[in-house]
């Protein structure tokens, strides 16, 4: 009898836990690091906008969930997820092996190349050569795959300066406090390439396995919901409509 009662209690607890998890997913808090144009930034009226804001809102609508955006600086965005400050990160987080040890990713939903940017006078620089880059001051956004690439390949010959936001990095390049920067190409395109005297100075470089929604590792059912919703907005044309609003080329995965 005790076994029967115990089994019944266990079943009841499991059902209760299941209902609690389902209820939790009626509302979600999504972390985003701003500004990071054209993916997420503030409009003149202070509202959040950008490719991932529009896509995230479309995915939430597909999941029939109410989603709240939570602004979080990049260097604390995974610790914030693990501390349950929000339920998922929807903020251009590249999928890589190091992050897979800490978080659970959805299927990738975009991938963009990276590029070197600098003054027009640096266009002849061979950015694949350590000798050519030796002694240069190079800006990257802290903790990104671009940071990892520069640190791994040139960290012994260049002065790597790390920034919390891409905006601060661009300001230091324009102010002559950096020789070069290595950025996600669309970010450099929407900021640096709009400035007279600055441009992309290299071919684009494809890094990583694409960008995914990041969740706590145990939230596999939430990942299933994101994957189903992302597939739906890709298949029904919503993704393409949003992408064409911000990009003149295909970033879809």
Automatic annotation (TrEMBL):
The UniProt record lists the keyword Signal: yes
Entry GO CC: cell envelope
Annotated localization: Cell envelope
Signal peptide: 1-22
Membrane spanning stretches: none
Main subcellular location of this protein, as a coarse class: other
PANTHER family with a match to the protein in the record: ARGININE-BINDING EXTRACELLULAR PROTEIN ARTP, MEMBRANE-BOUND LYTIC MUREIN TRANSGLYCOSYLASE F
UniProt protein name: ABC transporter substrate-binding protein
Organism: Litoribrevibacter albus
Highest classification ranks of the organism: Bacteria, Pseudomonadati, Pseudomonadota, Gammaproteobacteria, Oceanospirillales
Gene it is expressed from: argT
